[in-house]
Records
---
Amino acid sequence: MYDKNNIFAKIIRGEIPCNRVYENDFAMSFYDVNPIASTHVLVVPKGEYKNMFEFVNNASAQEQADFWSCLTETARIENCIDGCNLIANVGNGTFFYQSVPHFHIHLIAGDKKQDFSDIAK
Ligand code: 5GP
C-alpha cells in the first residue's frame, strides 16, 4: 500500500520545497538533501508507486517513457551521461535500505562526500 504522506509525495505535490533539476509531465528530479557526492540527484515518477517493481508493473507507457526521459535529461544537465552510478533501493535488508517509500533512482557522480554505504545500507 502506498503512503500518500511520504516526503517525496509532499515534494511532488509542492507542499515541501526542493531544488529541482528537471521536470516533465509524469516525472521530476531534484537534488538530494544529504548528498553523498558532488552530484546526487533523485529522479521520481509523479504517480504513486512505492518502489521500482510497482512502477514497472503498473505505470502507463507514457509514465514510463517520461520517467526514463527525465533520468536521461537529468544526467545530461549534470554532465554525467557518460559516467554515473544509478541506485534504486527496494525495501530494507542487510545491505540495502529504502527510507522513502516512493520509487526513486539516485543519480550519483562526481567527487565523493560520504560513503556509498550511507545510502545503500
Ligand atoms: P533511500 O534511502 O530511500 O534510497 O533514499 C532516500 C533519499 O532521500 C536519501 O538519500 C535522503 O537524503 C533523501 N531525502 C530525505 N528527505 C529528503 C527531503 O526532504 N528532500 C530531499 N531533497 N531529499 C530527501
Note: The chain has one domain: 7-114.
---
Amino acid sequence: MKFDVLTLFPEMFEPLKQSIIKRATEKQIIDINLINIRDFSEDKHNKVDDTPYGGGAGMLMKPDVVDRAYNSVKSKNAKVIYLTPQGKRLNQEKVKELSKEEHLILLCGHYEGIDQRVIDKIVDEEISIGDYVLTGGEIPAMVLIDSVSRYVEGVLSNESTDEESFANGLLEYPQYTRPEIFNNEKVPEVLISGHHENIKNWRREKALENTFRKRPELLENIALTDKEKSYIEKLKKEVQ
Ligand code: ADE
C-alpha cells in the first residue's frame, strides 16, 4: 500500500521510522513517501502561504502550490484525504475500509488552513482524528498511517487484529504474563488451566465487563446472546 503525504513538515514523520511501521516499510509492504509542499513554490522566497481575503487571523496555504505538489503524485486509483477537524471522525471501521485502498494521498494543512478552491478540486474525503484542534494535519496523518497499516496484509499476524479492542465491537479482555504472582496478585486461575473453551468464555465475559464499565455506549451496537444480555443486567444491578 502506498501513502503519499503532502506536508510542509516532512521532518515531523520520524516516528513512522520505528518499530512495526519501519519493518513494514523495509519489507516493502507499505511505502510512505513524504512530499514537501514547499518544493513546489515558484516564488523566489519559497512562499507557501498568504493572508486570508476578507481579513482574519493567521495565514493560509496557497492553492497553486498545494495543487502542484498534488500533481507530482496523483494517480487514477488514489484516494485523496485531507486531515482536518471538520472531517468525519476516524474509527476502527473507517481504518479497516481505508486499508483496502492501494494508494492514499494525505494532505496535511498547517497554519490556519488551506485555500478552499484546491480542497474542492483535489480532496475526496475529509477525516478528523477527534474533536480537538491540533497545529496541523501531520500528527493526524501519522495516526491514520499507523492505524491503517496494521490492517495491511503482512504487517501484523492476523490474530493480532482479530481479538483486539473494537475488532468485535467490544473492548479487549485483560491480559497477563509471567510472573504468576505479582504484588500478591495471582493470574486468574482459568488462564493457567489449559482449558481452551473456558478461557474463551472467560475472555468474552471480561470483554463484556470491560466494555460495560468503560464504554457502555458500545454495547448498543452489537448483537448479544440472551445469556450475555442477562450478564450485562447483572453488572448493571451491581453498580446501582
Ligand atoms: N488538523 C488539526 N486538527 C485536526 C484533527 N483533530 N483531526 C485531523 N486533522 C486536524
Note: The pocket of adenine is lined by residues 83-85, 128-130, 132-134, 137, 140 (CB under 6 Å).
